[in-house]
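This follows on from our talk about sequence and fold. I would like you to pick a protein and set down its sequence and fold. Go ahead and set the record down below:
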Amino acid sequence: MQGDEVARQEVIRLLRGPVAQTFKKLMPEMANMADPYKAILSNPHALDRAIKIFESRRDAFAPLLVDDKGKLINDNATRLVCGRSVDEVIAMAVRSGMRSFADQYLTDSAKRLAPLGPGQDRSADEALRGGWITGVAKMFRQRKAQETKSSPAQAERFYKAIRDALDFAWQVQFFPIYVEIPPTLFEKLGTGLTRLDSIEKLQRMARLAGEDIDKAETVIKDPALAKEMLGHNPLAATAISQMTGDEFNAVSGSLAHLDPRKKWDVFANTLTALQLGRDKRISPADITALAEHLDILNEYAVRIIFDLKLGREQFAEFLETAATSLGRALFMALFGPIPFFGLDDTATLQRRSYVNFVETTLKGLVTAIQKLTAKFKYVAPEVVSECLALVCESRRDGIAAEIAKLTPALAGAR
Protein backbone atom coordinates (compact mmCIF):
# COMPACT_ATOMS: atom_id res chain seq x y z
CA MET A 1 0.00 0.00 0.00
CA GLN A 2 2.89 2.31 0.85
CA GLY A 3 4.44 1.61 -2.57
CA ASP A 4 1.18 2.59 -4.27
CA GLU A 5 1.15 5.93 -2.46
CA VAL A 6 4.76 6.60 -3.44
CA ALA A 7 3.89 5.86 -7.08
CA ARG A 8 0.83 8.12 -6.91
CA GLN A 9 2.87 11.01 -5.52
CA GLU A 10 5.50 10.53 -8.21
CA VAL A 11 2.83 10.65 -10.92
CA ILE A 12 1.40 13.86 -9.45
CA ARG A 13 4.90 15.38 -9.37
CA LEU A 14 5.42 14.56 -13.04
CA LEU A 15 1.98 15.85 -14.02
CA ARG A 16 2.53 19.14 -12.19
CA GLY A 17 6.05 19.51 -13.56
CA PRO A 18 7.32 18.22 -16.93
CA VAL A 19 3.93 17.10 -18.24
CA ALA A 20 2.29 20.46 -17.50
CA GLN A 21 5.23 22.32 -19.07
CA THR A 22 4.91 20.22 -22.23
CA PHE A 23 1.25 21.07 -22.46
CA LYS A 24 2.13 24.79 -22.15
CA LYS A 25 4.00 24.38 -25.46
CA LEU A 26 1.31 22.28 -27.16
CA MET A 27 -1.81 24.17 -25.99
CA PRO A 28 -1.68 27.90 -26.86
CA GLU A 29 -4.37 28.73 -24.30
CA MET A 30 -2.05 27.39 -21.57
CA ALA A 31 1.03 29.38 -22.56
CA ASN A 32 0.48 32.14 -20.00
CA MET A 33 -1.10 30.02 -17.27
CA ALA A 34 0.80 30.14 -13.97
CA ASP A 35 -0.46 26.64 -13.09
CA PRO A 36 -1.35 24.71 -16.30
CA TYR A 37 -1.88 21.52 -14.29
CA LYS A 38 -4.67 23.11 -12.28
CA ALA A 39 -6.09 24.93 -15.33
CA ILE A 40 -6.40 21.70 -17.31
CA LEU A 41 -7.93 19.68 -14.48
CA SER A 42 -10.42 22.40 -13.58
CA ASN A 43 -12.01 22.51 -17.03
CA PRO A 44 -13.37 19.33 -18.70
CA HIS A 45 -13.00 20.86 -22.17
CA ALA A 46 -9.32 21.51 -21.50
CA LEU A 47 -8.81 18.04 -19.98
CA ASP A 48 -10.47 16.34 -22.94
CA ARG A 49 -8.33 18.38 -25.34
CA ALA A 50 -5.14 17.63 -23.38
CA ILE A 51 -5.75 13.88 -23.51
CA LYS A 52 -6.42 14.03 -27.25
CA ILE A 53 -3.22 16.04 -27.77
CA PHE A 54 -1.26 13.47 -25.76
CA GLU A 55 -2.65 10.70 -27.97
CA SER A 56 -1.70 12.52 -31.19
CA ARG A 57 1.66 13.93 -29.94
CA ARG A 58 2.98 11.09 -27.83
CA ASP A 59 6.45 11.85 -29.18
CA ALA A 60 6.50 15.11 -27.21
CA PHE A 61 6.22 13.13 -23.96
CA ALA A 62 8.70 10.39 -24.96
CA PRO A 63 11.28 11.17 -22.21
CA LEU A 64 8.63 10.30 -19.61
CA LEU A 65 7.27 7.21 -21.37
CA VAL A 66 10.02 4.78 -20.39
CA ASP A 67 10.26 1.76 -18.13
CA ASP A 68 12.68 1.35 -15.22
CA LYS A 69 15.43 0.35 -17.68
CA GLY A 70 14.96 3.42 -19.86
CA LYS A 71 13.23 1.55 -22.69
CA LEU A 72 10.57 3.54 -24.56
CA ILE A 73 7.02 2.26 -23.90
CA ASN A 74 4.62 2.53 -26.83
CA ASP A 75 1.50 0.97 -25.31
CA ASN A 76 -0.84 2.18 -22.57
CA ALA A 77 -0.85 -0.93 -20.37
CA THR A 78 2.85 -1.41 -19.49
CA ARG A 79 4.06 0.11 -16.22
CA LEU A 80 6.33 3.15 -16.65
CA VAL A 81 9.29 4.09 -14.49
CA CYS A 82 6.92 6.22 -12.37
CA GLY A 83 5.15 3.03 -11.27
CA ARG A 84 1.94 3.53 -13.26
CA SER A 85 0.86 2.75 -16.83
CA VAL A 86 -0.47 5.41 -19.21
CA ASP A 87 -3.99 4.00 -18.72
CA GLU A 88 -3.63 4.34 -14.95
CA VAL A 89 -2.32 7.90 -15.22
CA ILE A 90 -5.23 8.87 -17.49
CA ALA A 91 -7.66 7.33 -14.99
CA MET A 92 -6.07 9.42 -12.21
CA ALA A 93 -6.45 12.56 -14.33
CA VAL A 94 -10.08 11.75 -15.13
CA ARG A 95 -10.91 11.28 -11.45
CA SER A 96 -9.09 14.47 -10.44
CA GLY A 97 -10.85 16.36 -13.21
CA MET A 98 -14.22 15.04 -12.09
CA ARG A 99 -13.54 16.10 -8.52
CA SER A 100 -12.57 19.61 -9.58
CA PHE A 101 -15.63 20.00 -11.81
CA ALA A 102 -17.97 18.64 -9.12
CA ASP A 103 -16.48 20.98 -6.51
CA GLN A 104 -17.17 23.96 -8.76
CA TYR A 105 -20.56 22.91 -10.07
CA LEU A 106 -22.13 21.42 -6.96
CA THR A 107 -20.74 23.92 -4.48
CA ASP A 108 -22.11 26.84 -6.49
CA SER A 109 -24.55 25.70 -9.18
CA ALA A 110 -24.69 29.23 -10.61
CA LYS A 111 -21.00 29.09 -11.40
CA ARG A 112 -20.02 28.08 -14.92
CA LEU A 113 -16.59 27.42 -16.31
CA ALA A 114 -15.20 30.29 -18.37
CA PRO A 115 -13.78 29.61 -21.85
CA LEU A 116 -10.00 29.35 -21.97
CA GLY A 117 -9.54 31.42 -25.11
CA PRO A 118 -9.43 30.84 -28.86
CA GLY A 119 -7.81 27.44 -28.46
CA GLN A 120 -11.13 26.28 -27.05
CA ASP A 121 -13.13 27.06 -30.18
CA ARG A 122 -15.18 24.01 -31.02
CA SER A 123 -16.14 22.55 -34.38
CA ALA A 124 -19.76 22.31 -35.50
CA ASP A 125 -19.79 18.60 -34.61
CA GLU A 126 -18.40 19.30 -31.13
CA ALA A 127 -20.96 22.07 -30.62
CA LEU A 128 -23.75 19.70 -31.69
CA ARG A 129 -22.58 17.04 -29.26
CA GLY A 130 -22.25 19.68 -26.56
CA GLY A 131 -25.87 20.66 -27.08
CA TRP A 132 -26.99 17.04 -26.83
CA ILE A 133 -24.96 16.55 -23.65
CA THR A 134 -26.56 19.66 -22.14
CA GLY A 135 -29.99 18.31 -23.10
CA VAL A 136 -29.39 14.94 -21.45
CA ALA A 137 -28.02 16.67 -18.34
CA LYS A 138 -31.26 18.66 -18.18
CA MET A 139 -33.27 15.42 -18.39
CA PHE A 140 -31.47 14.04 -15.34
CA ARG A 141 -31.89 17.33 -13.50
CA GLN A 142 -35.65 17.28 -14.13
CA ARG A 143 -35.86 13.73 -12.80
CA LYS A 144 -34.70 14.71 -9.34
CA ALA A 145 -37.53 14.29 -6.86
CA GLN A 146 -36.52 17.48 -5.10
CA GLU A 147 -33.91 20.14 -5.56
CA THR A 148 -30.89 19.64 -3.38
CA LYS A 149 -29.11 22.78 -2.30
CA SER A 150 -25.58 23.16 -3.56
CA SER A 151 -22.98 22.57 -0.88
CA PRO A 152 -19.46 21.27 -0.33
CA ALA A 153 -20.96 18.23 1.42
CA GLN A 154 -23.01 17.39 -1.67
CA ALA A 155 -19.91 17.64 -3.89
CA GLU A 156 -17.96 15.39 -1.51
CA ARG A 157 -20.67 12.74 -1.43
CA PHE A 158 -21.01 12.83 -5.20
CA TYR A 159 -17.28 12.38 -5.77
CA LYS A 160 -17.03 9.49 -3.32
CA ALA A 161 -19.94 7.78 -5.10
CA ILE A 162 -18.50 8.12 -8.60
CA ARG A 163 -14.74 7.96 -7.99
CA ASP A 164 -14.20 4.22 -8.30
CA ALA A 165 -16.38 4.04 -11.42
CA LEU A 166 -14.16 6.40 -13.45
CA ASP A 167 -11.35 5.02 -15.60
CA PHE A 168 -11.52 6.22 -19.19
CA ALA A 169 -10.72 9.36 -21.17
CA TRP A 170 -14.07 9.32 -23.02
CA GLN A 171 -15.88 9.82 -19.70
CA VAL A 172 -14.60 13.40 -19.45
CA GLN A 173 -17.10 14.68 -22.04
CA PHE A 174 -19.94 13.42 -19.84
CA PHE A 175 -18.96 15.31 -16.65
CA PRO A 176 -21.86 17.80 -17.17
CA ILE A 177 -24.27 14.83 -17.20
CA TYR A 178 -22.69 12.97 -14.28
CA VAL A 179 -23.03 15.95 -11.91
CA GLU A 180 -26.80 15.95 -12.48
CA ILE A 181 -27.17 12.30 -11.45
CA PRO A 182 -27.96 11.74 -7.75
CA PRO A 183 -25.12 10.11 -5.77
CA THR A 184 -27.57 7.40 -4.67
CA LEU A 185 -27.74 6.18 -8.27
CA PHE A 186 -23.96 5.92 -8.53
CA GLU A 187 -23.89 4.18 -5.14
CA LYS A 188 -26.33 1.60 -6.51
CA LEU A 189 -25.07 1.20 -10.08
CA GLY A 190 -21.38 2.20 -10.06
CA THR A 191 -19.75 1.23 -13.35
CA GLY A 192 -23.18 0.28 -14.66
CA LEU A 193 -23.67 4.03 -15.14
CA THR A 194 -20.21 5.13 -16.21
CA ARG A 195 -19.94 2.29 -18.72
CA LEU A 196 -22.73 3.90 -20.77
CA ASP A 197 -20.45 5.24 -23.47
CA SER A 198 -22.71 7.29 -25.74
CA ILE A 199 -25.10 10.22 -25.49
CA GLU A 200 -27.91 7.95 -26.70
CA LYS A 201 -27.32 5.44 -23.87
CA LEU A 202 -27.26 8.19 -21.25
CA GLN A 203 -30.44 9.64 -22.73
CA ARG A 204 -32.09 6.23 -22.35
CA MET A 205 -30.82 6.05 -18.77
CA ALA A 206 -32.36 9.44 -18.02
CA ARG A 207 -35.70 8.12 -19.25
CA LEU A 208 -35.46 4.83 -17.37
CA ALA A 209 -37.95 5.00 -14.54
CA GLY A 210 -37.06 3.67 -11.11
CA GLU A 211 -40.13 1.44 -11.22
CA ASP A 212 -38.75 -0.22 -14.39
CA ILE A 213 -35.64 -1.22 -12.46
CA ASP A 214 -37.78 -2.48 -9.58
CA LYS A 215 -39.97 -4.47 -12.00
CA ALA A 216 -36.91 -5.94 -13.73
CA GLU A 217 -35.52 -7.06 -10.37
CA THR A 218 -38.84 -8.74 -9.66
CA VAL A 219 -38.80 -10.54 -13.03
CA ILE A 220 -35.20 -11.69 -12.51
CA LYS A 221 -35.98 -12.87 -8.93
CA ASP A 222 -32.35 -13.76 -8.16
CA PRO A 223 -30.83 -10.76 -6.24
CA ALA A 224 -27.28 -11.66 -7.28
CA LEU A 225 -28.29 -11.81 -10.95
CA ALA A 226 -30.16 -8.50 -10.66
CA LYS A 227 -27.08 -6.90 -9.10
CA GLU A 228 -24.97 -8.26 -11.94
CA MET A 229 -27.35 -6.64 -14.46
CA LEU A 230 -27.19 -3.24 -12.76
CA GLY A 231 -23.40 -3.40 -12.54
CA HIS A 232 -22.95 -4.19 -16.23
CA ASN A 233 -25.78 -2.46 -18.06
CA PRO A 234 -28.83 -1.05 -16.23
CA LEU A 235 -30.48 -0.30 -19.60
CA ALA A 236 -31.28 -4.03 -19.69
CA ALA A 237 -34.04 -3.24 -17.19
CA THR A 238 -36.17 -1.64 -19.92
CA ALA A 239 -36.65 -4.93 -21.78
CA ILE A 240 -36.68 -7.19 -18.73
CA SER A 241 -39.40 -5.11 -17.03
CA GLN A 242 -41.65 -5.91 -20.02
CA MET A 243 -40.93 -9.66 -20.01
CA THR A 244 -42.62 -12.48 -18.19
CA GLY A 245 -40.50 -14.61 -15.91
CA ASP A 246 -40.56 -17.46 -18.44
CA GLU A 247 -39.47 -15.18 -21.29
CA PHE A 248 -36.59 -13.81 -19.26
CA ASN A 249 -35.45 -17.25 -18.11
CA ALA A 250 -35.53 -18.60 -21.67
CA VAL A 251 -33.43 -15.75 -23.06
CA SER A 252 -31.10 -15.54 -20.06
CA GLY A 253 -30.45 -19.26 -20.05
CA SER A 254 -29.64 -19.20 -23.76
CA LEU A 255 -27.06 -16.45 -23.18
CA ALA A 256 -25.50 -18.00 -20.07
CA HIS A 257 -22.29 -18.91 -21.92
CA LEU A 258 -21.55 -15.26 -22.77
CA ASP A 259 -19.34 -12.90 -20.81
CA PRO A 260 -21.75 -11.16 -18.36
CA ARG A 261 -21.09 -7.74 -19.89
CA LYS A 262 -22.05 -8.93 -23.36
CA LYS A 263 -25.07 -10.83 -22.01
CA TRP A 264 -26.58 -7.72 -20.43
CA ASP A 265 -25.75 -5.71 -23.53
CA VAL A 266 -28.04 -8.11 -25.42
CA PHE A 267 -30.87 -7.35 -22.99
CA ALA A 268 -30.09 -3.63 -23.31
CA ASN A 269 -30.74 -3.97 -27.06
CA THR A 270 -34.37 -3.57 -26.04
CA LEU A 271 -36.54 -4.37 -29.05
CA THR A 272 -34.31 -7.24 -30.12
CA ALA A 273 -34.37 -8.71 -26.59
CA LEU A 274 -38.17 -8.48 -26.46
CA GLN A 275 -38.42 -10.18 -29.84
CA LEU A 276 -36.21 -13.03 -28.64
CA GLY A 277 -38.59 -13.64 -25.75
CA ARG A 278 -41.84 -13.33 -27.71
CA ASP A 279 -41.25 -14.63 -31.25
CA LYS A 280 -42.42 -18.25 -31.13
CA ARG A 281 -40.23 -19.12 -34.13
CA ILE A 282 -37.10 -18.43 -32.08
CA SER A 283 -35.98 -21.31 -29.87
CA PRO A 284 -33.44 -21.20 -27.04
CA ALA A 285 -31.01 -23.06 -29.31
CA ASP A 286 -31.48 -20.34 -31.96
CA ILE A 287 -30.69 -17.64 -29.41
CA THR A 288 -27.54 -19.49 -28.38
CA ALA A 289 -26.47 -19.78 -32.02
CA LEU A 290 -26.98 -16.04 -32.60
CA ALA A 291 -25.73 -14.94 -29.17
CA GLU A 292 -22.44 -13.34 -30.30
CA HIS A 293 -24.33 -10.95 -32.61
CA LEU A 294 -27.44 -10.09 -30.60
CA ASP A 295 -26.02 -7.07 -28.79
CA ILE A 296 -25.78 -5.20 -32.12
CA LEU A 297 -28.47 -6.66 -34.41
CA ASN A 298 -31.62 -4.56 -34.64
CA GLU A 299 -34.97 -6.33 -34.39
CA TYR A 300 -35.63 -6.09 -38.13
CA ALA A 301 -32.35 -7.85 -38.90
CA VAL A 302 -33.23 -10.66 -36.47
CA ARG A 303 -36.65 -10.94 -38.05
CA ILE A 304 -35.36 -11.46 -41.61
CA ILE A 305 -33.14 -14.32 -40.44
CA PHE A 306 -36.27 -16.19 -39.41
CA ASP A 307 -38.39 -14.92 -42.32
CA LEU A 308 -35.87 -16.68 -44.57
CA LYS A 309 -36.16 -19.81 -42.41
CA LEU A 310 -32.41 -20.15 -42.08
CA GLY A 311 -31.00 -23.13 -40.27
CA ARG A 312 -28.86 -22.44 -37.22
CA GLU A 313 -25.76 -23.50 -39.10
CA GLN A 314 -26.45 -20.69 -41.61
CA PHE A 315 -26.73 -17.77 -39.15
CA ALA A 316 -23.04 -16.85 -38.98
CA GLU A 317 -22.44 -17.31 -42.72
CA PHE A 318 -25.51 -15.21 -43.56
CA LEU A 319 -24.32 -12.29 -41.42
CA GLU A 320 -20.73 -12.59 -42.63
CA THR A 321 -21.91 -12.60 -46.26
CA ALA A 322 -24.05 -9.50 -45.68
CA ALA A 323 -21.15 -7.68 -44.00
CA THR A 324 -18.75 -8.61 -46.81
CA SER A 325 -21.16 -7.72 -49.61
CA LEU A 326 -22.29 -4.41 -48.13
CA GLY A 327 -19.08 -3.40 -46.37
CA ARG A 328 -18.87 -3.23 -42.59
CA ALA A 329 -20.05 0.37 -42.22
CA LEU A 330 -23.12 -0.10 -44.42
CA PHE A 331 -23.87 -3.45 -42.80
CA MET A 332 -23.94 -1.79 -39.38
CA ALA A 333 -26.12 1.04 -40.71
CA LEU A 334 -28.69 -1.48 -41.95
CA PHE A 335 -28.38 -4.43 -39.55
CA GLY A 336 -27.04 -2.67 -36.46
CA PRO A 337 -28.41 -0.33 -33.77
CA ILE A 338 -30.56 2.59 -34.90
CA PRO A 339 -28.38 5.73 -34.59
CA PHE A 340 -28.99 8.64 -32.25
CA PHE A 341 -30.48 11.70 -33.97
CA GLY A 342 -30.90 14.10 -31.06
CA LEU A 343 -33.47 15.15 -28.49
CA ASP A 344 -35.97 17.42 -30.24
CA ASP A 345 -39.08 16.78 -32.36
CA THR A 346 -37.11 17.04 -35.59
CA ALA A 347 -34.78 14.29 -34.38
CA THR A 348 -37.79 12.10 -33.59
CA LEU A 349 -39.06 12.49 -37.17
CA GLN A 350 -35.58 11.79 -38.58
CA ARG A 351 -35.32 8.63 -36.51
CA ARG A 352 -38.75 7.48 -37.66
CA SER A 353 -37.76 7.96 -41.31
CA TYR A 354 -34.56 6.00 -40.73
CA VAL A 355 -36.39 3.14 -39.01
CA ASN A 356 -38.93 2.98 -41.84
CA PHE A 357 -36.11 2.81 -44.38
CA VAL A 358 -34.29 0.04 -42.49
CA GLU A 359 -37.44 -2.03 -42.07
CA THR A 360 -38.53 -1.58 -45.70
CA THR A 361 -35.05 -2.27 -47.09
CA LEU A 362 -34.55 -5.44 -45.06
CA LYS A 363 -37.98 -6.70 -46.10
CA GLY A 364 -37.01 -5.93 -49.68
CA LEU A 365 -33.85 -8.03 -49.30
CA VAL A 366 -35.94 -10.95 -48.02
CA THR A 367 -38.35 -10.72 -50.97
CA ALA A 368 -35.54 -10.50 -53.53
CA ILE A 369 -33.67 -13.45 -52.00
CA GLN A 370 -36.81 -15.54 -51.90
CA LYS A 371 -37.49 -14.82 -55.58
CA LEU A 372 -33.95 -15.77 -56.52
CA THR A 373 -33.91 -18.96 -54.48
CA ALA A 374 -37.22 -19.98 -56.02
CA LYS A 375 -35.46 -20.20 -59.39
CA PHE A 376 -33.16 -22.91 -58.12
CA LYS A 377 -34.37 -26.49 -58.37
CA TYR A 378 -32.99 -27.47 -55.00
CA VAL A 379 -32.50 -25.84 -51.63
CA ALA A 380 -29.03 -25.83 -50.10
CA PRO A 381 -27.43 -23.61 -47.44
CA GLU A 382 -25.01 -22.06 -49.92
CA VAL A 383 -27.86 -20.95 -52.22
CA VAL A 384 -29.22 -18.40 -49.74
CA SER A 385 -25.76 -16.92 -49.17
CA GLU A 386 -25.08 -16.68 -52.90
CA CYS A 387 -28.42 -14.98 -53.46
CA LEU A 388 -27.84 -12.63 -50.52
CA ALA A 389 -24.47 -11.61 -51.95
CA LEU A 390 -26.00 -10.89 -55.37
CA VAL A 391 -28.85 -8.83 -53.91
CA CYS A 392 -26.62 -6.85 -51.54
CA GLU A 393 -24.04 -6.08 -54.21
CA SER A 394 -26.67 -4.97 -56.71
CA ARG A 395 -28.37 -2.67 -54.18
CA ARG A 396 -25.35 -1.49 -52.21
CA ASP A 397 -24.88 1.89 -53.92
CA GLY A 398 -28.56 2.78 -53.65
CA ILE A 399 -28.69 1.81 -49.97
CA ALA A 400 -25.53 3.82 -49.26
CA ALA A 401 -26.92 6.91 -50.97
CA GLU A 402 -30.17 6.74 -49.00
CA ILE A 403 -28.36 6.16 -45.69
CA ALA A 404 -26.19 9.21 -46.37
CA LYS A 405 -29.31 11.34 -46.90
CA LEU A 406 -31.00 10.03 -43.75
CA THR A 407 -28.02 10.37 -41.39
CA PRO A 408 -26.22 13.68 -42.00
CA ALA A 409 -23.79 14.91 -39.33
CA LEU A 410 -24.10 11.83 -37.11
CA ALA A 411 -20.50 10.65 -37.22
CA GLY A 412 -19.82 11.52 -33.57
CA ALA A 413 -23.17 10.57 -32.12
CA ARG A 414 -23.03 6.79 -32.12
